[in-house]
Amino acid sequence: MAKIEEFRQIIEDQIRMLDRPVRPEGLYDPVKYVLSLGGKRLRPALCLTSAALFGDYSAAVLPAIGLEVFHNFTLLHDDIMDQSSVRRNQPTVHEKWDNNTAILSGDVMLIKAYELMAKSPVGVLPQVLEVFNKTATEVCEGQQFDMDFEKTTDVTEEGYLDMIRLKTAVLIGASLKIGGILGGGSLRDSSLLYKFGQDIGMAFQLQDDWLDVYGSQEAFGKRIGNDILTNKKTFLLITALNRLENDSKKELLSWLERKEYLAEDKIAAVTHLFDEAEVSDLTRKKRDEFFFRALENLEKLGGNKDIKNELQTFAHDLMARAR
Amino acid sequence: MAKIEEFRQIIEDQIRMLDRPVRPEGLYDPVKYVLSLGGKRLRPALCLTSAALFGDYSAAVLPAIGLEVFHNFTLLHDDIMDQSSVRRNQPTVHEKWDNNTAILSGDVMLIKAYELMAKSPVGVLPQVLEVFNKTATEVCEGQQFDMDFEKTTDVTEEGYLDMIRLKTAVLIGASLKIGGILGGGSLRDSSLLYKFGQDIGMAFQLQDDWLDVYGSQEAFGKRIGNDILTNKKTFLLITALNRLENDSKKELLSWLERKEYLAEDKIAAVTHLFDEAEVSDLTRKKRDEFFFRALENLEKLGGNKDIKNELQTFAHDLMARAR
C-alpha cells in the first residue's frame, strides 16, 4: 500500500476521535457532521507525507488533523458567506441547522485546529505556529479578495492569481511545510516543500478553472459550464475580460448581466468568446508554469526517494482530475 | 498612578499598533473599528497586573493584547448571533457593514489573538496555549448554552450558573492565570489567580443581572428593566421561574409571551413577581458567595503585596458598578 493511502487511514481514525465532547449538542453536532462528510483529506495527507520524507512522521499526526479541521472551518464559514446550500453532495451546516449554528461551530473548529497545532513538540512549536498563523490570516485575506472580486468586472490577472494563492495555495504549501518541520527536515527543505505545495495549489486551481469549460464531464465530476452560469470570476473569465475589446467585450459583459437565458446558450456563447480571447491556451500555459516550477522545487528536495516519488505521483494525479 | 492605570496606557498603545496590515480593507477596517471603540480593557489589564505580582510583566504584554482581541472577536460574532445593532453606543460591525464582513473579520481576529498568544516565551508557551485553548472552547460552549436557554423557560439555577461561568467567568480567570504564568508565578499561584478571576467574573455577572432590576439608573449606566423587557434569561428570571408556583408562575409566563404592553407595566409587574419569589436577596446571596470566595483565594496568593491590594481594590470597584 502506498504511504499516502496508509496516512489517509490514520487521518480517518484520528478524525473519528474528535467526536468528543458532545455537549452542547448544538455546538458539536455540526462539527461532527462536517468532519464526517469526507473529502480527500488532502492537506493532512500531504503533511504526513512530507514529515515521512525525513523519517518519523508521528509528531505530525495531530497537527495534520489540525490542518484538516482548519480547512473544514473555512468551508463552513465560506458556505455561509457564499450562501452555498450543498457541500460534498450534502446540505451545508447553515442549511441543515442555521447561520448562527454555522458561525459558532466554525469558531470552535478554528479553536480546535489551534489546539491540535499546539500538540507539536515544544522545540518546533513556535515555528509551526508562525507558519500556521501567517497562513490562516492569508486564507481570510483570500476569501475577502474573492468576495470583493465578485462585485466587479475589473480584476487584473495578477490580482486574481494573488487571490487564489491566498485562498487556496498557501494552505497546501503550509501543510507540506509544517509536515517538513515536524518530520525534522532542514529549513531549506521545509521552504522547498512550501514552494512545491503553493505552486501545486496554483496549478490545481487553474486546472479546476479550465476543466469547468474545456474538461469532459467525466474527468471533471461536476457539471461543465457551471462557473460560466454563475458568473464565477475564474482565470478564464478574468483573462477574457482583460483581452477582449469592443463588441466582443460588450457581448461578454452583457452575458454577465443577463438574467434570462437558456443555460446551453450562455455556455456556448461565453465559450465562444473565451475561444476568441485564446483563454484555453493561456490558462494551460499559466497552469504549466506553476506545475513545472513545483516539480523543479520537488527535485531539489532532500529526504527519502520513495516518498519524494509519491509526492510526484500525487502532483500528477491532482492535475489529472479535479477537487 | 496605580499600576492598573499604567497598564491601561500600555494596552491602548499596543492596540493602536494592530492598525496594520491594511489590505484588504473589507477585512481589516472592521477590526480596527471594533478595537477602537474602547471598553475597559479589563482582561489585558488583569493579565498584566497578575504578571506584575511576581516581578517583570513584560512577557505578558502581547498575550494580554491577545486576550482583548479574543474578547472583541466574541463580541463581534455574538452580536451577529444576537442580532444586536449597538455596541458601546456605536453600530455593530454587521450593522455598519454586513454579516459576511462581521463573520470574516471576526475570524481573522481570532487568528490574531492566537498570533499574540504565540508571542509567549517558548518555555511557558505550551502552558499558556493550553489555558487559552480550553478557555476559548468554553466561551463558545457558553454562547451555545446561552442561545439554547433563550428558547426555553426550563433552565435550572445550576445550568444558568454554568452558562455564565463558561460565557464570561472563565475568560476573566484565564486572563489572570495566563498573566501569572507569564510573570513567573508558581503553579499554585496561577491556579489561585484562576479561581479568583472566575469567581469575580461570576459575582460580576450576578451583580449585573441584579442591577438591571434593583440598581439605580445612575450606578448602572444602562436603562433599568431592559433585561425584563427583552425576556433575557438572567439569574433573577431563572430563579423566579423555578420558585413561583400556580397563578404567580402563570402570570410570569404570560408576561414572557405578551407582545403588546407598556414598558413600565411589564417592568412593574415582573419586578413584583421577582419580589414575591425573593429573588433580590437570593441573587445577592449567591453573588456574595462568589465574591467572598474570590477574596479568600486572593488572600492565599503569593506575590507583591501592593499589587495584591490593587487586585482587591479592583474587585471591589467592579462590584460597585456594571460593565
Walk me through the structure.
- Chains A, B: This is Geranylgeranyl diphosphate synthase type II.
- Chains A, B: InterPro entries: Isoprenoid_synthase_dom_sf, Polyprenyl_synt.
- Chains A, B: It comes from Marinilabilia salmonicolor.
- Chains A, B: Belongs to the FPP/GGPP synthase family.
- Chains A, B: GO terms for molecular function: metal ion binding; prenyltransferase activity.
- Two copies of one chain form a homodimer.
- Chain A is an all-alpha fold.
- Chain A has a single domain, classed as Farnesyl Diphosphate Synthase (Orthogonal Bundle).
- Helices cover 75% and strands 1% of the residues of chain A.
- Chain A contains 16 helices and two strands.
- A two-stranded antiparallel sheet of chain A has the order 1-2.
- In chain A, α9 packs antiparallel against α15.
- Chain A is globular.
- The mean pLDDT of chain A is 94.
- Chains A and B meet through α4, α6 and α7 of A and α4, α6 and α7 of B.
SSE layout:
The structure is a homodimer of 323-residue chains.
Chain A: H1 3-16, H2 25-36, H3 42-52, H4 61-81, E1 86-87, E2 90-91, H5 93-96, H6 99-117, H7 125-150, H8 157-183, H9 187-214, H10 217-220, H11 226-229, H12 235-243, H13 246-257, H14 263-276, H15 279-300, H16 305-320
Antiparallel strand pairs in A: 1-2
Helix pairs in contact in A: 1-3, 1-4, 2-6, 3-4, 3-8, 3-16, 4-6, 4-8, 7-8, 8-9, 9-15, 12-15, 13-14, 15-16
